[in-house]
Amino acid sequence: MGGTLDIRNMTRRSAPVFPFARAHKAALPRFDVSLAFVTSAKALALNKALRRKSYTPNVLSYRTGEKSDKSGEIIICMNIAERQAPSYGMSYRQFVAYLFIHGLLHLEGMRHGTTMERRERATLARFISVPSSSNVSTHRNRHRYRDTPDEDSRR
Questions:
Q1: CA–CA distance from 6 to each of 3, 20, 82, 89, 114 (Å)?
Q2: How far is the C-alpha of 22 from the C-alpha of 86, rounded, in Å?
Q3: Could you give the count of Cα atoms lying within 13 Å of 92 in the half-sphere of its Cβ?
Q4: What is the SS3 assignment for 51-70?
Q5: Tell me: the pLDDT tens digits for 45-72?
Q6: Are strands 59-63 and 71-77 parallel, antiparallel or unpaired?
Q7: Residue among 115, 128, 138 nearest 59 (CA)
């Protein structure tokens, strides 16, 4: 069966409005996906535990269960997404939607690159208008804040 989306907001703020369920069906219709919005502290703790990385990520995605299972989790840090959105040439709402689609494509097995970037933008454009500027590359910018601790991760 498959194809479910469970959304949890583990922060005190409202998540951006976006048709997450429709985007999920468009990108990974047979996957069971859990989407969690988390604080910077939680994102940092998960990144340390899951990847042994010491920076606060904007998004984490990983498959759950056995390799043959079509299920996974996407974790979005709204504070980091809000801070990084302008550097990607997107609004906060657009960038959170982009991060969700980015996570979905990773669950599918896609790796960073031009093909993934084109698919991200095409999928995102089906649901909201996005900048069409070709000089704003989402993947070239992805390491921009890794070595710069954000305020939330220093607390």
A1: 10, 10, 22, 28, 29
A2: 25
A3: 11
A4: HCCCCCCCEEEEECCCCCCC
A5: 999 999 999 999 999 999 997 777 889 9
A6: antiparallel
A7: 138
**Residue pLDDT, tens place only, 97-150:** 999 999 999 999 889 999 989 998 888 889 987 665 544 445 544 544 444 444
Residue entry with tokens 């703020």: 13
Whether residue 153 contacts residue 45, with contact meaning beta carbons closer than 8 Å, is answered with no
Residues forming beta bridges with residue 9, ordered by sequence position:
37
Domains, the chain, in order of start with CATH, read 5-137 (3.40.390.30)
**In what helix (H) or strand (E) does residue 74 lie, and over which residues does it extend?**
strand 71-77
State the number of CA atoms in the 13 A half-sphere of 118 facing the CB: 3
Which tokens is 154 given? Answer: 């220093």
Torsional class of 41: left (φ above 0), alpha (ψ -120 to 50), beta (otherwise): alpha
| CB distance 98 to 59 below 8 Å | no
Q: Are strands 5-9 and 32-38 parallel, antiparallel or unpaired?
A: parallel
